[in-house]
Specification:
The protein is 23% helix and 13% strand. The protein is an alpha+beta fold and 99 residues long. The strands form 3 sheets. Strands 1-2 form a two-stranded antiparallel ribbon. Strands 3-4 form a two-stranded antiparallel ribbon. The chain has a two-stranded antiparallel sheet with strand order 5-6. A hairpin with a 4-residue loop joins strand 3 and strand 4. The longest helix is centred in the first third of the chain and has 13 residues. About 10% of the residues have low confidence.
Length: 99
């Protein structure tokens, strides 16, 4: 779990996103080693600041706790055991979210 104080501000997020975009899809972090790591030391295989991540998953600290958090590289209980209510006729989700 990432502490709120460890999450980047919106300004820091935008700076990381711009750096990520400028590096043409290569991974980057504050010391420019080209990689991101979780707080437990495990390397993250994706760029959490790539264009589209915030739009799809939310800004750091504002992701859905039931779903995927690309900044901490974690998933919530909704990924494996979340429940939803579906329309009996169409099968569409009417309550909850399907990941």
């Amino acid at each position: 779990s990432v502490l709120a104080s460890e999450l980047p501000s919106t300004t820091q997020f935008e700076q990381k996103r711009k750096a990520s975009t400028l590096l043409s899809g290569t991974k980057s972090n504050d010391d420019m080693t080209g990689e991101y790591y979780r707080t437990d030391g495990v390397r993250i295989d994706h760029d959490p600041y790539a264009p589209g991540m915030a739009e799809k998953y939310g800004l750091p600290g504002s992701t859905d706790p039931e779903g995927f958090d690309p900044y901490a590289d974690t998933v919530g209980p909704g990924i494996y055991g979340g429940s939803v209510k579906r329309d009996a006729q169409t099968g569409e989700v009417i309550i909850g979210q399907q990941y």
